[in-house]
Amino acid sequence: MKHSELFSRILIIIGILLVLAVPFAAQAIGAQGVIEIHARMAESGGWTPSTIQGKAGVPLHLRLTSDDVMHSFAIGQSDTPAVDVLPGQMSELTLTFDKPGTYTYYCTRWCGPNHWRMRGTIEVTGNDSGSPQPGTPPLYVTLNLDIDAAHPASVTPGGIPEAQRGAQFAALLPNRTLSPDYYRSHSPAQAFQDLRVDQSLASLNNSDLWDLVAYLWQSNSTSEGLAEGQRLFAQNCAACHGETAGGNGVFAGDIKALAGKTPANFSDPSTMLGASPALLQGKILRGGMGTGMPSWGPILTDQQIWNVISYLYTFQFNGNTADAGK
Ligand code: HEC
Ligand SMILES: [Cu+2]
User: What separation in angstroms does the CA of 231 have from each of 22, 69, 226, 227, 228?
Assistant: First the structure.
């Protein structure tokens, strides 16, 4: 046997050993907890499994594949990038959760009108048996708002209020209106009526006063926040509510047929100016409970929800845009 021949045989044997070793190694990892997750459209079952157990600080190895169309896997309230989940392919992902809690995973690809129902949960338990901290209740609960009631605006402006014009009257705003709490707990129409009876603003006509309300709303948002709100809206809301928020997204018809309700039209002053940020937050956090409006509480962070809300008001006021200040 020539030297080179021996060498190539050894190589082949090593090669065969490797081929044998790979499934072996995979199995060994499997024993330690590689979890295989299959994605299917919500109508055909969504995620399998739809509940996963984990331990805080212990890496969770996931292998993801799709049994039908292209999906994507993301974890709510986190900045872990979404992973594509493709038919006939395995995507690997390792997650480590620092804190115990219930985390939601969801699909970020619009695979159909029930797409948003593709959600599952990861129950992460901790080593410390300390009881979970009770969180502060959301503002709509504290304010005791009925978020399911109709909320027509009691007054509406003659045209679209201009935040930039309103800025010239900013110094006249009473101090009590300057806190974020004031903005969050008042609809623009309520703020208008409240300011209308304030002596310090008696010199302004109604149109000026609406401009001042637009300014007050703008001063409670930042251009970065609005830009994030716009991005989140395009990704999560536009398919139902429409690119320009008219309530006419590509799935609006399907949602109407499925749940009987049309997605809200955020460009309509007669309802949007009657909605406070707290009310909108309640609807977004909790969802419509059967109206076709999903619940976003497990998916978006508090700050992201406030940013989407600032963005929703840009359809009511001029000068309140995501590129203001650029
Ligand atoms: C699958 C379709 C769908 C998606 C996606 C969706 N919505 Fe809705 N939304 C609806 C429907 C239908 C309604 C009307 C029924 C209701 O109020 O519950 C609604 C109502 C609302 C309301 C209540 C408005 C009011 O005046 O009371 C808010 C606020 C809202 N959506 C925000 C959002 C935001 C923000 C997103 C994205 C993060 C979003 N929605 C995504 C279908 C959807
Ligand atoms: Cu999907």
Answer: 42, 24, 9, 6, 5
Any atom of ligand 1 within 6 Å of the Cβ of 140: no
| Residue 132 tokens, joined | 């979970």
Domains of the chain, residue spans: 34-125, 139-313
105, 74 Cβ separation under 8 angstroms: yes
CB 245 less than 6 A from any atom of ligand 1 = no
CA–CA separation, 71 vs 85, rounded Å?
5
- 229 touches ligand 1 (CB under 6 Å): no
Lowest pLDDT segment from 107-111, 139-143, 187-191, 263-267: 107-111
**For ligand 2, a single-atom ion, which residues have Cβ within 5 Å?**
71, 107, 109, 111, 115, 118
Using a 6 Å cutoff on CB, does residue 283 contact ligand 1? yes
Q: CB–CB of 279/145 below 8 Å?
A: yes
User: CATH classification of 139-313, choosing from 2.60.40.1120, 3.40.50.150, 1.10.760.10, 2.30.30.100?
Assistant: 1.10.760.10
- The partner residues of 60 in beta bridges, in order of sequence, read 95
Tell me the pTM: 0.86
pLDDT of residue 326: 35
Residues 229 and 308: beta-carbon distance below 8 Å: yes
Identical fold for domains 34-125 and 139-313, yes or no, is: no
The model's pLDDT over 281-290, given as tens digits with 9 standing for 90+, comes to 999 999 999 8
